[in-house]
Design brief:
The complex is a heterodimer of chains A (164) and B (291).
Chain A (H helix, E strand, L loop, with lengths): L30 E8 L3 H14 L4 H21 L3 E9 L2 E8 L29 H8 L2 E7 L2 E9 L5
Antiparallel strand pairs in A: 1-2, 2-3, 3-5, 4-5
Chain B lengths: L17 E6 L2 H17 L3 E6 L3 H10 L4 H6 L3 E5 L12 H17 L5 E6 L13 H11 L5 E8 L5 H8 L4 E3 L3 E4 L3 E7 L2 E9 L4 H13 L4 E11 L1 H14 L5 E5 L1 H9 L8 E5 L4
Parallel strand pairs in B: 1-5, 1-6, 2-3, 2-4, 4-5, 9-10, 10-11, 11-12
Antiparallel strand pairs in B: 7-8, 8-9
Helix pairs in contact in B: 4-5, 7-8
The chains are: A alpha+beta (164), B alpha/beta (291).
């Protein structure tokens, strides 16, 4: 479950988003998966991520971890963001990258669709032990989260094993 | 759906009950049967199980669930047998022959000096091409009639996914009670129910924050059970952070006063370990075999 320090690189277009949902996920690499989600479609989203992770060659235990990370990021958009979002999965060199984006942030704590418990607050990304985004950091080789007025973009990277 | 089934609990069955058990998966069948057998043996009764699986499987499933099988078999207090040869002969069923078998068991039980008899019968044979299967309701009616004046109870077992509703309805009237696992949540993706042997709760499928409410209810009821508690997640393939945290917190607080066993696949065991359950005294994380 521990992070793998290899495979360090930045996903394409990794900057502070001025309009989440724009620009990322591509950078010349064709997405393996590009799927919109809301709270009622997380099961289907997990199944799609699992299928593509296995097909891209991620070992079973790491594929399980990717599904966990993808789910928690998506659930974060559902519960603490606008209630829906978009997930993209693509391969860049020897890593599988997964990006979850949404187009809005809760207006204020306690005010968002899911109660707005402040998960988009960068300062808490590291510290909320036992919560979804904390778990994402535990299982991903790399993880980043950017929030702005235009929304949130979260990315995780999972290193693929060397080709046989 | 958040509800506890209105049906009788298998642990509440009494003498002369002719109970209709419906189950949705083998885990549930084996769990409820193990509780039925365990309670019968503990009361000194003779227990007979006609299983649709090989008797060896039936015995190992009971053993796995904490029933003291070997001593009971050695003492003639427990037997597991296939339906063929008892209810069926050469894939042919007759209600008369089957009732003859049951009366023979009752006589043998009396002769052996046991104070009563518990019989569990898996009706799965009736789903196969068996001649005389139309006599199934006659058999059930005959069981109900044979109950009078005895110290017997019978648990008839029906797979509710595979038996058609018409058949289930046609036999239901002959039973004194219907029995099923208490279910806190069930849909196409997830099932949360009570586990009876060993006591606790069982989760199967995939669970996320949508099911936090029934999970909390199930955990709260598990806390009210006596003794050690098992949280059986061997049929669970996904669990999210909020549900992992809820189970880990409940297990941690319970482990202060009794043993708590978490049963799950390796990937989910790793996730629970991340949530800090690995080093809690009294809390045992059992990694299930891939089955």
């Amino acid at each position: 479950m521990s992070g793998d320090p290899r495979g360090r690189h930045q996903p394409p277009g990794n900057g502070a988003p001025d309009g989440a949902g724009q620009g990322a996920g591509a950078g010349g690499d064709t997405p393996l998966l590009d799927q919109a989600f809301d709270g009622d479609s997380l099961y289907a989203l997990r199944a799609a991520v699992a299928a593509h992770a296995a097909r891209a060659g991620l070992p079973q235990d790491r594929a399980d971890d990717l599904v966990v990370a993808a789910h928690e990021l998506a659930a974060n958009s559902v519960l603490h963001g606008p209630g829906h979002g978009r997930l993209r999965l693509w391969q860049h060199e020897r890593a599988l990258l997964c990006e979850v984006s949404d187009d809005g942030v809760p207006s204020a704590a306690g005010d968002g669709p899911g109660g707005g418990r402040g998960y988009n607050d960068h300062a808490r990304w590291h510290s909320e032990r036992g919560h979804g985004l904390w778990l994402v950091r535990q299982v991903a080789d790399q993880a980043s989260l950017h929030s702005g007025p235009g929304g949130t973009i979260a990315r995780v990277s999972f290193t693929l094993p060397p080709p046989r | 759906m958040v509800a506890v089934d209105a049906g009788t609990q298998v642990t509440d069955l009494m003498v002369r009950d002719h109970a209709c058990l419906t189950y949705g998966e083998p885990e549930e069948l084996f769990d409820l049967t193990a509780a039925f057998a365990r309670d019968g043996l503990a009361s000194g009764l003779k227990v007979v199980w006609l299983s649709d699986d090989a008797p060896g499987r039936a015995v190992s499933e009971l053993t796995r669930r904490g029933v003291t099988v070997e001593a009971a078999i050695a003492a003639g207090q427990l037997s597991a047998a296939p339906c063929e040869g008892q209810l069926l002969s050469g894939q042919a069923f007759s209600a008369e022959q089957a009732l003859g078998w049951l009366n023979g068991e009752l006589s043998a039980c009396r002769a052996e000096g046991f104070p009563g008899l518990r019989v569990a019968v898996d009706m799965g044979w009736a789903l196969r091409p068996v001649t005389g299967v139309e006599q199934l309701p006659d058999f059930e009616e005959g069981i109900a009639a044979a109950m009078a004046g005895t110290t017997m109870s019978v648990l008839c077992q029906y797979d509710r996914e595979r038996f058609d509703p018409v058949t289930l309805a046609s036999v239901a009237a002959f039973h004194t009670r219907s029995v099923a696992a208490a279910t806190y949540y069930a849909d196409a993706v997830l099932r949360i129910c009570r586990q009876y042997a060993p006591p606790g709760i069982r989760l199967a499928g995939e669970i996320d924050y949508h099911a936090e409410e029934p999970l909390a209810l199930a955990l709260a009821e598990a806390i009210r059970l006596d003794g050690d508690i098992t949280i059986n997640m061997s049929g669970l393939s996904f669990i999210d952070a909020p549900c992992t945290r809820m189970i880990a917190d409940a297990a941690r607080s319970l482990a202060a006063s009794r043993r708590v066993v978490l049963h799950c696949h390796p990937a989910i065991a790793d996730q629970f370990a991340l949530f800090g359950v690995a080093d809690v005294p009294g809390l045992i994380l059992v990694t299930a075999d891939e089955r």
